[in-house]
Amino acid sequence: MLSLDPPDHTRLRKLVSRGFLYKFIQSLEPRIQVIVDGCFDKVGREPGFDVIDCLAKPLPVIVIAEMMGLPDSDHKQFETWSEVIIDRTGTSDPAIHKAADQASRSLIQYFQRIIESKRGNPDDDLIGQLILAEEGGDKLSSYELYSTCMLLLIAGHETTTRLIGNGLVSLLQRPGLAEKLRANPGAIPNAIEEMLRFEPPVQSTERFAKQDMEFHGHQFRRGDRIILSIAAANRDPEANEVPEEFDPFRENIRQVSFGYGIHLCLGASLARLEAKIAFESLIQRFPEMSLADKEPAWGTNPFFRGLDRLPVNLRDR
User: pTM here?
Assistant: First the structure.
């Protein structure tokens, strides 16, 4: 779906969007809160923990897997497959590409088994809805069904994992901001928009020239691949004043981290809701939280911005 134009894109998006209606996504808030609380309950009385391992990775995996009707026992395997597949972007290392190809095949084979087990008696979940749509005459091919499920699973958690990690680093590196948000929790949704603007999980996207054209003095031929920097757009001074400053209370935030136009991220409302509940809980539950590493090590993937680890200290809990 990411690389399609209308009418194929329109057809696929219409089918998948049924599972991402805003009202339904908001109804998930109590369940997401239970998942977040469960993640934190595992911390116990430890003096610190890794936010990525404890919360940022498991939360979105559990949420999207439950939406798709996938068993709890497979969650860790999803994480492994998706991380290997994501590692392929931005590298020409043949070993990484070989591992990613194998992970992709394994994930498609997994969905083949799941889909076949649901045919004839589909559940009321995302996969069940896609099966019903296929059998209802919308001409969703088997390949489209498998690849759409793979896209939903990977995109449904990889970017949200990075949003939580990137946002928390931006917050904790600036003394006093977490306390201000704790005193004004209603500002957390606005803070999440600033996190998306300042450290977007997806750094860039690609498009292809539909025709020969000139853009700001650069010549493009029909079919040329064009890399568009989301991170640069978010820090355009014509879009946001003082763009190099992280300000969770910034007014009129303009960001394109979820894309734009017909390819606007289907899961944007879900990612925002997960992040909102995660930050509300982090800030209230751990008021003395601080970074264990003042300068956490960022990953090297040029397209996906994020951290593999984010250890924090907890004082006077």
Answer: 0.92
